[in-house]
Every structure is written in C-alpha cells, then in structure tokens.
Amino acid sequence: MTPTCVRTIVAGALTLVAAAGCQSAARPPASQSSMPPDPVARPELVRQPYSPADVKFMAGMIPHHAQAVVMTGWAPTRDASPQLQLMCERMLISQRDEIAFMRTWLRDRGQFVPAADATHGKMEHDGMTHDMLMPGMLNEAEMAALEKARGKEFDRLFLIGMIKHHQGAIGMVEELFASYGAAQDDFVYLFAADIQADQATEIDRMQQMLEALVLRFAMAVTYSGVEAPGPPGARRENAGCIRPTSNAAGRDASAAECDRHCEAEY
Fold first, then answer.
1. What's the pLDDT at 131?
2. Which residues face 131 on adjacent strands?
C-alpha cells in the first residue's frame, strides 16, 4: 500500500474522531481548551481483533505525542527561526489530531485512556504502577534546557531533541510490528505505518536543518578570527573556550564564559 493510501485512510479515521467529538455535551470552546475533549465510547464500531501490544502502543504513544505538543508549542515564544516555526506548527496540528484518534481507539475498546496532556507512560511492576518516559522522550533536564533556550540555541536544542524523539517513535512502531498478533486491526497498522514513514522523512529534514545551523555557526567563528571547529568529535581550545564540535553533542554547557563569547559569534 502506498504512503498516499495510508494517509488517506488514517485521515478518514481522524475525521470520524472529530465527528464523534462533536457529539460530546458541554464541550468547552477552543479558547478555553487547546487539548482534544474526551472521546465518546463507540464499542459497536469495533469490528477487528486487537492485541495487548496494540493497546500498549496506543497508550504509550499518547504521552509521547503530548511531549511533542509541548515542545512544538514553545517555538513561537522562543524566537525560533521562521523555518522551524512552520515545521512546529505542522507537527503541532498533526500530533493533536493523532492524540484524539488514539484516545478514541482506546475508549472504544474499553481500555484505559491516558490524558491528552499526559507526560509519562505507565508501567506495571510487582503489582504497582510506575511512571516512565517512552523511548526517545526528553527527560526533565532536557526539557528545562529547551524551555529556557532562545533563538538559534532553541533551534539547535529542539532539532537535537526532536530527532531523538522521532527515532524513539519509530522504535515503538518497530516493536509493535515485531510483536506476535499485533497490528491486525487496520487502523492500528495504517496509523503506525504512517508514523514510521512521516517521522523518518521529518528526521531527514531536521538533520539537514541542524547541519545547516552548525555550518552557519562554524562560518561565523571562522569570520570572527577564531579557529573554526575541527572534525566531528574533536575538541579545540579557542580564546579560553573548550567546545565539542559534534553537531549532535552541541556546546559545552559547563563552560559559561565560553557560551557568552560564542553566543555573540552565533
């Protein structure tokens, strides 16, 4: 099945979710709630079998998407570049729609439905429920650094974080497809395949954006008269600064004086 067919079918499913949401009573106006309303259960529409792996995937992908909603929502107020803001706007819309779809899928099947803004997945161990980060999700320190960042530093941290985030989502899809009896439900299979294809494409695009950002920084350092960064993984000492030059590693946050010097050159 072609990616276009996959997107068409999943888009149709999301349209049904939106229609079901319109049946909810006392739905708050958009200005009061930016998250999708609780879905209405429709067990009579369940026609295909589903597995525990399907439920685990859907329930885990909700907080995964919810963190992406937070990250993309910061872009307009963090002086992100116009190119990054446009990408974040598109991600924000798709992630919210998909959260609504996943919550409705779970509700229709009588499963636990995570909150639309859940920040952690749930793990059962020794009869107790524990919060956990899903694969690729940013930890508290990484989220705090991103929230604090502005301008090009926000762009850099966002791209590094979202690439990892997308890689984690693709890993979840691969785990689903490798599970016995999973993804027999057409909606689950097509939805997961769509995530895998779209996020792989977005990773490629974000890697190009990150490489261009690092190249601009290297050129600025060169033109400033400071020795340009060396090959990936090397470390150079310039004007009292020690900086990692791997575009994935970013800048050495512990060197505050170096940060102040290089921020001016950035």
1. 74
2. 122
Q: What angle do CA 123, 125, 127 make, to 5 degrees?
A: 115
pTM for the whole thing? Answer: 0.70
Q: To which residue do tokens 């590094």 refer?
A: 160
3-state secondary structure the chain: CCHHHHHHHHHHHHHHHHHHHCCCCCCCCCCCCCCCCCCCCCHHHCCCCCCHHHHHHHHHHHHHHHHHHHHHHCHHHCCCCHHHHHHHHHHHHHHHHHHHHHHHHHHHCCCCCCCCCCCCEEEEECCEEEEECCCCCCCHHHHHHHHHCCHHHHHHHHHHHHHHHHHHHHHHHHHHHHCCCCCCCHHHHHHHHHHHHHHHHHHHHHHHHHHHHHHHHHHHHHHCCCCCCCCCCCEEEECCEEEECCCCCCCCCCCHHHHHHHHHHC
- The structure tokens listed for 3 are 């990616």
Fold of 3-26+48-219: Ferritin (1.20.1260)
State the span(s) of the chain assigned CATH 1.20.1260.10.
3-26+48-219
The model's pLDDT over 93-147, given as tens digits with 9 standing for 90+, comes to 999 999 999 999 999 999 999 999 998 776 665 566 667 899 999 999 999 999 9
